[in-house]
Amino acid sequence: MSVIAVIPARGGSKTVARKNLRPLAGKPLVAWTIEAAKAAREVDRVLVSTEDEEIAAAARQAGAEVPFLRPEALAGDDVHSVMTVLHALDWLETEEGSLPEAVTMLLPTSPLREAADLDRAVALWRSAGAPSVISVCTAGSPLGSLRWLRDGRLVPLDEGANRNFQRQDVETLYAVNGSIYVAASAALREQGTFHMTGALGSPMSKRCSIDINTLEDFAIAEALVSLAGQEKQA
């Protein structure tokens, strides 16, 4: 059963200029995701989808395939990443005459995922027969503590929740961490989303789930990488 990883990496960024090329602990951000995907036993090919020649060169240097440059129309702020995966599948069918049985979308803004996280998610999809698998991590707060702030007024997300709950007595809440998405290629093309009915969650650690969108996030990721290095030496 063939599995291809598609890494969407556009050149533009609203918050950090040239984010996917910005160094993290000495490597371009996009290289971290490429290296994890290449190290995963459950992934057969690693493909980067970009419209940017510089990102394409960095991706190839890190070991990924970049067989095409995607259209500029698929590189805008309003284009959901899943559209770039669907475009990659269309390209594979047209140019190579075949499709992988499954595809995993890996966003480069989640650089600290490990190959084991990816292997676990794909293996779960394969063994459970689920329509899709999406990585998650524990949410920062239980549902009962979450509030909308509307005109300065606190409005509970769950009106029926016990507002005097004890944290140890409530069910663990998980959040989609934006790191790993897995689905059958045919199902993804049919539904146009990884968020399918019956999707399963594949838990990841909070440390591996960091999502980089700001310079502060880069600094936190740098600290986490340094900490991991110190732990290995201890």
Question: What report would you give on this structure?
Answer:
The chain is of the alpha/beta class. It has a single domain (3-138, 175-233), classed as Spore Coat Polysaccharide Biosynthesis Protein SpsA, Chain A. 32% of the residues lie in helices and 21% in strands. The chain has a six-stranded mixed sheet, sandwiched between helices. The longest helix has 19 residues, at 215-233. It starts with a strand and ends with a helix.
Keywords:
234 residues; six-stranded mixed β-sheet; Spore Coat Polysaccharide Biosynthesis Protein SpsA, Chain A
Number of E strands? 10
Give helix % range.
25-40%
- Domains (count): 1
Shape: globular
Distance between the termini: 40 Å
Strand content: 15-25%
Question: What characterizes the major β-sheet?
Answer: 6 strands, mixed
Radius of gyration equals 19 Å
CATH topology: Spore Coat Polysaccharide Biosynthesis Protein SpsA, Chain A
Number of distinct helices: 6
Which CATH C-level class is it? Alpha Beta
Low-confidence stretches: none
Neighbour order of strands in the largest sheet: 4-1-5-9-6-10
Overall mean confidence score, pLDDT? 92
CATH homologous superfamily grouping: Spore Coat Polysaccharide Biosynthesis Protein SpsA, Chain A
What structural class do the secondary elements suggest?
alpha/beta
Helices and strands, in order, run as EEEHEHHEHEEEEHEH
In the CATH hierarchy, the architecture is: Alpha-Beta Complex
